[in-house]
Amino acid sequence: MKKIIILKAIALVLLISSCSDDEGQDLIDFTVNFSSETVSTNEEDTAVDVQLNFSRPASEAGTITLSYTGTNAEYGTDFTTSPNGETGTLSVPVASGAQNVSFSFNKLTNAIEGSTKSVTFTIDGFDQTDWSQGTTTSTLVSYTPIASTNGVVDSENGGSNIPNQVYFDFSSATQTAVKRDTWEIAFYNGTENRVFLNSSLLVSAAELTGVTDLLSVTEASNLPESMELNALDAMFQPTTVTVNTVAELVQGLPVGYQQYGDLEAGISFTDRPEGNLDDTAIAEVSTTAEENFVYIISLGSEIPTEPAETGSIKHTGDQRGFMKIRILTDGNSYTLQYADLAETESYNEVTVNKDAAYNLTAFSLTNGDTVSVEPTKEQWDINLSGVFAYYGNQGPLVAGLTFSDYVLHNTMGGVGLYQVTIEADVPTYANFTRTDVEESAFVYDNRAVVGSGWRDAFGGVINEDVYYIVKDADGNYYKFDFTAYTSAEGERGNYQFVYERL
């Protein structure tokens, strides 16, 4: 029996680490595509970057020449570009090794209400004779919001350390990259009073039931009651631990195979992956102050700076330490009290007001301030979190699990998503049309439908049998499919996907 458990544990380690050897590949043709056929702006935008993607990193420096035509828009009066395009064309430099390049479109005026105003840019040529155009040779920059039709997206997750979370909005073809370690907790801006943990940083939290005095808690403190918790020993065999002090509790608080918990008793020190309001490690914050207790927070893991070997990942470093917090609310704002675990003299206190424009307001316990992380709730559809952690089941084991290459969708913002598995009588990605959409299949209560299932954890390759359908908050339908798992050099943490509006 012990041998079977050890073998399954080894398989679990392989699954979570998802390392693979890079087989190498021949140099493919160098082609250039606009990342999207359309780029939207609104009245507040004064500039927008327009991106061109390459089929592989440029092996030599060069220049891309673009031409443009305006609809009710003139150069110098309604817009300019950087590089300069006053002559009717603009030359965009490409550095050796670049995977993409962009230029700036600068708005000088806005569209008159009810009118159409746009500029179309077209790939005109190259100074390198072996460069060629791809399939998306032009893009339309609109002065008013329009839903993007299709595109190819190279994620900005940042490589084998996966330093960034990336939020992507299909209709505006916009991705927003945010470092994973800029926040630890986030306050819900809806009617309920909830607090979420940064799962991409492996943050966890344990409640000290009945304790309301923040400064009375240190590692030496006794728990209000002893806790019987499940754990895995060094041989990955289930065991039970009795926890009597805070010092003993923090031994099993960080996310990892030996993390403590008891799912049958409802004890988990991480949020559930589905992302629902009633599945957070921190209980709903009460408007009655005495009902809100102190929590011990594991601040997660550092982001390593040394890159992993080719084909591997290295996204969890040293443990970042522990803090203690207490949260109060009046229903319209939160009051956060926080301090280092060893602090007994004073604590920090801040007020975080609810902002209905956002699902969550993120907060950095290490820097002591709110942080801009998520775009507004209508302006993102999927989150390429890269790293994702929670306490749960993996085969026969129950443990703190850490996944790489993880993708979530914006259930709080009203985005629906479902997976299409290619089998008999199911259209391929290329053949899927609007008439194939199944409204009843959209999932609005589980943000982890995509998860890490889009790639093969052992083989290090794309799962070619699945793709995904999205319905955004404005009712636009998109299909998307992952096309790359690594960069052209084989570095993990560089994802690519294609999408198309239905």
UniProtKB/TrEMBL annotation:
Keywords: Signal. The keyword Glycoprotein does not apply. The keyword Signal applies. Residues 1-24 form the signal peptide. This is HmuY protein. It comes from Flagellimonas marinaquae. It comes from the Bacteria. Pfam families: HmuY.
